[in-house]
Amino acid sequence: MQLATRALSGHVVRFRPPHAINQWACAAPRFDSDTYSRQRSLHSSSRPSTRTAVPPSVARLNTSTRWSVALATDSVTPLAEQAPVGTTESQAERKKRSRRKRQWRRLGLTVAIVLSVGFVAYETVRPFRLFTLAIGRCTLVGIAVGHCIVDYKLLFRRTFTDKEERHQAYEACHKKCAERILEVLKTNGGIYIKLGQHLSSVQLIPTAWSSTMVPLQDQCNPTPVRDIEQLFLTDLGVTLQDQFTDFDPDPIGVASLAQVHVGTDKRSGKRVAIKLMHPDLEDFAYVDMKTTTFMLRVVKSFFPDFEFTWLGEEMEENLPLEMDFRHEAANARRATRDFQDLKTTSLVIPEVLWSERRVMVMEYIQGGRVDDLKYLHDHNIDRNRVSQELSRIFSQMLYINGFFHGDPHGGNLLIRPAQPHSRSPYNFEIVLLDHGLYFDVDRALRTNYARLWLSLIARPSAKTEADRRKYAKLVGNIDDDLYPIFESAITGRASLGKAGGGSMMDLANQTPEEAHRIRVAVVEEGLLTSIFDLLRRVPRRLLMVLKLNDLTRSLDTALKPTHPPYRIWLIVAEFCTRAVWQDDQRQLSEERVSTGLSLSLIRRSVSSWFGFQLWHRGLLFAETLADLRASWVLYRDWITGLTVGGFEEARRRRSGLHTLD
Question: Could you list the active site residues?
Answer without folding.
Answer: 407
